[in-house]
Amino acid sequence: MPLSPLHIETPLLRTSADYSKSGLPLWLKLDALQPSGSFKLRGVGLLCQHEVAKGAKEIFCASGGNAGIAAAVAGKALGVPVTIVVPETTSAEVRTRIAATGAKVMVHGSVFDEANAHAVALAAERKAAYVHPYDHPLLWEGHATLIDEVVKSGAEFDCVVTSVGGGGLLAGIVEGLRRNGLSDVPVIAVETEGAASFHAAALAGERVTLPAITSIANSLGARQVAQHVFDLLETHPIESVTVTDAEAVAACLKFADAQRILVEPACGAALAVTDVHADRLSRFKAPLIEVCGGIGVSLAALEAWRARFL
Ligand SMILES: *Cc1c(COP(=O)(O)O)cnc(C)c1O
After folding, report:
1. Is the C-beta atom of 281 inside 6 A of ligand 1?
2. Which residues on adjacent β-strands are paired with residue 148?
3. Which of 2, 45, 100, 159 has the fewest CB atoms within 10 Å, measured from its CB?
4. How remote is the CA of residue 219 from the centroid of ligand 1, in Å?
5. Is residue 38 lining ligand 1, measured as CB closer than 6 Å?
6. Is the CB of 172 under 6 A from ligand 1?
7. Which atom of ligand 1 sits closest to the CA of residue 164?
8. Which residue is closest in CA terms to ligand 1's atom 5?
């Protein structure tokens, strides 16, 4: 019997045509309402379920962000302890927030790569499950359920707009389109300037490693996308676009006022496209926007970004 999912089926909203400069009514898939605050629970939940079914007694993850919280939520539901390894640079606030989920927080290394290597080594040593934030086929299979839900609802859409960090969400969306017979539906892949590793790779024709991340959208801050995600450029219609941090923040504020839901700038990037790249959208009739969410936001943070950027 298939395991019942740890994520919830999220609402799908229809906006009016004048909601954005695109002049199109939009489908908004509200993954900000997942119990972990972002879409990440879809894939991370599935991966953790598989690992626990195979006998894992513990879960390790190296992410101070939404993948870590998703692993913590999944571990709690599955009744196994979760350890999140974060680098020294992760703020005390984030460490406290992770610890509040019941997960153990371990600090190791000065950058993500060091924390990640430590999580991988510990998981191997203890025969525990290791959860990568974006690079695993089960993550993509889990994320694909968001497209299954939209298709099942009967909503008709002719493009999908999504944010891209390491590309796990993009890979999941492409997988969801394929398994629903929608391989010809284009995906508009959005990053902020300063976190645009997919954009750089698409332009260069090879996987590029960014020297640094300079965007405030830290959930998009993978310096290099997964190989599988880069390879999708050959097999699926994907258009890579960027927005500025200021545009992402403006979109978060507009969305907060209109829908009364807070999302991270990483999610604001996707929401910004319908205003910033309105002409690119004009050849479509019904865009679907993945409102990916994120816990790295608060009223105070939005106010501070407003003061800084707008
Ligand atoms: C993880 C995350 C992303 C990017 O997802 P990838 O799978 O790394 O591309 C975007 N937005 C939010 C809120 C996230 O948590």
Report:
1. no
2. none
3. 2
4. 5
5. yes
6. no
7. 9
8. 165
Encoded tokens for 309? 């950027």
Rounded distance from Cα 38 to ligand 1 centre (Å) = 8
Comparing CA positions, the residue from 252, 247, 254 lying closest to residue 294 is 252
Q: How many CB atoms lie within 10 A of CB 275?
A: 17
Is 282 within 8 Å of 22 (Cβ atoms)? yes
Contact 83, 48 (CB under 8 A): no
> How far apart are alpha carbons 121 and 113 in whole angstroms?
12
On the question of pLDDT at 34 being above 80, the answer is yes
pLDDT per position as a tens digit, 201-227: 999 999 999 999 999 999 999 999 999
Residue type, 24: L
58 alpha carbon to ligand 1 midpoint, in Å?
24
All domains in the chain, ordered by first residue = 12-39+138-309 (3.40.50.1100), 40-134 (3.40.50.1100)
What is the whole-number distance in angstroms between the Cα of residue 122 and the centre of ligand 1? 24
Q: How many CB atoms lie within 10 A of CB 191?
A: 28
40 lines ligand 1 (CB under 6 A): yes
High-pLDDT (> 90) share of the chain, %? 92
Q: Which ligand 1 atom sits nearest the alpha carbon of residue 296? A: 13
What is the pTM assigned to this prediction?
0.97
pLDDT attached to residue 113: 85
